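FORM 7B: Structural annotation worksheet

SECTION A. Query
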Amino acid sequence: ALYWACRAGDLNSVREQIASNPHTDLNRLEPNGSTALHVASYSGHTEIVRLLHQHGVMRHRRNLHGLTAYEEAANDETRQLFHRPDNS
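SECTION B. Predicted structure
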């Protein structure tokens, strides 16, 4: 559910999923080989990427294609989130 909420850009649902799921689920590779951070980054959902960072997702986890979420980012605005401190 977290992955699909991130993919859809549903910030409220992402918040609910984070609150109700174990921390390890934040970094889970889905059957398609990507994490929630990968899909949020790929889709350009910057607020969701920021929220996932604030909750300690693994930024350097590679997907099935060997790419990080930073490398999958839709645009420069999303990539910049990987360079900022989590509290900004």
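SECTION C. Observations
The CA atoms of residues 29 and 35 lie 5 Å apart. The radius of gyration is 11 Å.

SECTION D. Sign-off
Analyst initials: ____
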